[in-house]
Write a structure and sequence with these properties.
Elements lengths: L1 E3 L4 H12 L4 E5 L18 E5 L14 E4 L6 H6 L1 H22 L2 E7 L26 H21 L2 E7 L2 E2 L10 H10 L4 E4 L5 E3 L1 E2 H12 L7 E3 L4 E3 H12 L5 E4 L14 H7 L7 H19 L1
Parallel strand pairs: 1-2, 1-4, 2-3, 4-5, 5-6, 6-11, 7-10, 8-13
Antiparallel strand pairs: 9-12
The chain binds nicotinamide-adenine-dinucleotide (NAD) and uridine-5'-diphosphate.
C-alpha cells in the first residue's frame, strides 16, 4: 500500500486502517500541510515506512504495491489559496506520477477527489452525474479545476492503459489530526469555542455543509478501492446544516457562552452542499455511521489532549 499525503489528516488515518488490516504501508509526504506528529505513533512499526518527498518530482519507491492511494494536496481553502501553484502541480503532475506507479505495479489506484468538483452547485443535493458549476478563473479554481483535471487524468489512465482506477468525491470531512489553525470551519469553531473566543461566521452563515467523520470516510475509501467502480462516488455526510446552525451546535456541545461574529464571505464560497449518497449505498453498501455529536466529541478530546496544549 502506497499512500501519498500519508502524514496528513485523512491520509494518516488510512495508514492506520491498512496497518491494522496487516498490510505493509508506505506513506509519502512533503510535510507541506501535514505533520510528522500525525504518524509519530507508527515509529517502530516494521510494516510502516515514511518517505519525505514531493510527489511532483518523479520517484520510484522501492517495492511493488497492490494499492496506491493519492491524497497529497492542500485541502483547506486557507492552505490552497496560499499555495496556488503547488496545488495545481500536485493534482496534475503529482497525480500523473502516482498513476504511473499504479500502472508500473498493476495496482488499484484511488484519487481523493472532492465535492468542490461541483463548484457552487445549481443542483441539490449533488449526485455524481451533475457536472458542476465551477468558476474556472476564480481564486478557488486552483483547487476545483485541479481536482477536475485529476479526475480526467485518472479516467484517461483507466481508458488508455486499463489501470484499475477509482475516484472518491469526498465532502467535508472532520476528526482528530486536523490542524487547529488550518482555517477549516470545524477546527476553527472548536478552537474558538474551547478558548472562549468569538466564533467567526463568514457571510450571514446561511451557506450549508454536510460533515462526515473521518472513520466513516476511511471505510468508504476502503470499500471503493476494493470495488469494480471506476466512475466517481460521493462519500460524505447526509445531515446538512447552515454554518450558523453549526456554530450554535458547537456552542452547545462545548458548553461555551462565546459570541458569534460575522465576517466577509470568501469569494465563490459554495452556498449549498450536500451529497446524494445513493450510489455509495448501492455500489459499496456504505453509509455514514458516526453522529455529529459523537464525532465532534472525539475531535474535542483530541484537541484537548494534544493541540490545545501544544499551541
Ligand atoms: P491535509 O492537508 O491534512 O493532507 C494533505 C497531505 O498532502 C499533507 O500531509 C501534505 O503535506 C501532503 N502534500 C501536499 N502536497 C504534497 C506534495 N506535492 N507531495 C507530497 N505530499 C504532499 O488534507 P486532508 O484533509 O487530509 O486531505 C487529503 C486529501 O483529501 C486531499 O487530496 C484533499 O483534496 C482531499 N479531500 C479532503 C476533504 C476534507 O474535508 N478533508 C474533502 C475533499 C477532498
Ligand atoms: N467558515 C466560516 N468560518 C470560518 C471558517 C469557515 O464561516 O472560520 C465557512 C466557510 O465560509 C464555508 C464553510 O464554513 O462556507 C466551510 O468552510 P471550510 O473552509 O471548512 O470548507 P469548504 O467547504 O469551504 O471547503
Amino acid at each position: 500500500m502506497l499512500v501519498s499525503g500519508g502524514a496528513g489528516f485523512i491520509g494518516s488515518h488510512l495508514c492506520d486502517h491498512w496497518l491494522a488490516a496487516g498490510c505493509e504501508v508506505t506513506a509519502v509526504d512533503n510535510l507541506s500541510t501535514g505533520r510528522r506528529d500525525n504518524i509519530a505513533h507508527l515509529n517502530g512499526n516494521s510494516r510502516f515506512r515514511f518517505l519525505e518527498h514531493d510527489v511532483c518530482a518523479p520517484f520510484a519507491p522501492p517495492g511493488k504495491f497492490d494499492y496506491v492511494l493519492h491524497l497529497a494536496s492542500p485541502a483547506s481553502p486557507m492552505d490552497y489559496l496560499r499555495a496556488p501553484l503547488e496545488t495545481l502541480a500536485v493534482n496534475s503532475t503529482g497525480t500523473q506520477n502516482m498513476l504511473d506507479i499504479a500502472r508500473r505495479d498493476g495496482a488499484a489506484f484511488l484519487h481523493a477527489s472532492t465535492s468542490e468538483c461541483y463548484g457552487d452547485p445549481l443542483e441539490h443535493p449533488q449526485h455524481e452525474g451533475y457536472w458542476g458549476n465551477v468558476n474556472p478563473v476564480g481564486p478557488r479554481s486552483v483547487y476545483d479545476e485541479a481536482k477536475r483535471f485529476a479526475e480526467a487524468l485518472t479516467m484517461a489512465y483507466h481508458r488508455e492503459y486499463g489501470v484499475n482506477t477509482h475516484l472518491a468525491r469526498l465532502f467535508n470531512t472532520y476528526g482528530p489530526r486536523m490542524k487547529l489553525d488550518d482555517g477549516r470551519v470545524v477546527p476553527a469553531f472548536l478552537a474558538q469555542a474551547l478558548q472562549g473566543r468569538a466564533l467567526t461566521v463568514f457571510g450571514d452563515g446561511s451557506q450549508t455543509r454536510s460533515f462526515c467523520y473521518v472513520s466513516d470516510v476511511v471505510q468508504g475509501i476502503a470499500r471503493l478501492i476494493a470495488s469494480g467502480e471506476h466512475f466517481p462516488v460521493n462519500i460524505g455526510g447526509s445531515e446538512e446544516l447552515t454554518v450558523l446552525d453549526f456554530a450554535r451546535r458547537i456552542q452547545e456541545i462545548v458548553g461555551s457562552a462565546c459570541a458569534i461574529e460575522f465576517h466577509e464571505l470568501p469569494e465563490d464560497d459554495p452556498l449549498r452542499r450536500r451529497p446524494d449518497i445513493s450510489k455509495a449505498k448501492r455500489v459499496l453498501g456504505w453509509r455514514p455511521t458516526v453522529s455529529l455529536a459523537e464525532g465532534l466529541g472525539e475531535t474535542i478530546r483530541y484537541f484537548q489532549s494534544r493541540e490545545l496544549t501544544l499551541a
